Amino acid sequence: MVIIDGENAILGRLASNVAKRLVKNEIIYIVNADKIIITGDPNQIVKKYLERRARGSPQHGPFFPKTVTGIVRRTVRGMLPYKKAKGKKLSNLRIFEGVPKNFENEKMEKMEKDISCDFITLKELAKRIGGK
Predict the structure, then answer these.
(1) pLDDT tens digits for the chain (132 residues)?
(2) Which fold has domain 2-128?
(3) CB 38 within 8 A of CB 122
(4) How far is CA 97 from CA 32, 50, 84, 94, in A?
(5) Parallel, antiparallel, or unpaired for β 93-95 and 28-31?
C-alpha cells in the first residue's frame, strides 16, 4: 500500500508514476488530490477541458469528468492499457480530496517540484468547468 500526497504535484508526472505502479499490481492511495496542479496558462487549460466536455452527445459519450477525483482517475486511465488484462488495475487506485482521518499519521510520498510558471489547481479547474 502506497500513499501519495498530491500537494503541488504536476498531474501528468503523478499520473505516469501511478500508472507504472498500478501495472505492477500495487495498491495506491492519492490524498490532497484537490491540490494537484496543471502547468500552463490557466485560461487555455480551462478552454481545453470545456472543449473535451462538449464533445459527442450526452447519451452516447465520450464522457469526461468534472470532479477532481474524476479528472485524476481519467488521466491515470489514459496512461494504462485499460482494455487489456494487464491494465485492468484501476480498481487498485483510491483518490481523496484532502487527507482522511485514517491516513493522517501514515508516511506519505511527496512528488513536489519547483514551479516557476503559471499553473491551475484541480480544485479551481473543476469549479470553472462546472464541478462542485
Answers:
(1) 999 999 999 999 999 999 999 999 999 999 999 999 999 999 999 999 999 999 988 899 888 999 999 999 999 999 999 889 888 889 999 999 999 999 999 999 998 777 789 999 999 999 999 987
(2) Ribosomal Protein L13p; Chain: A; (3.90.1180)
(3) yes
(4) 5, 22, 29, 10
(5) parallel
d(CA 8, CA 1): 22
What are the two backbone dihedrals, phi and then psi, of residue 2, each rounded to the nearest 5 degrees?
Answer: -120, 130
pTM of the model: 0.92
Q: Which set of grid coordinates corresponds to residue 105?
A: 499519521
- Where do the structural domains in the chain lie, given as residue ranges? 2-128
Joined together, the cell numbers standing for residue 76 give 491515470
Residue of 105, 109, 122, 88 whose CA lies nearest to 10: 122
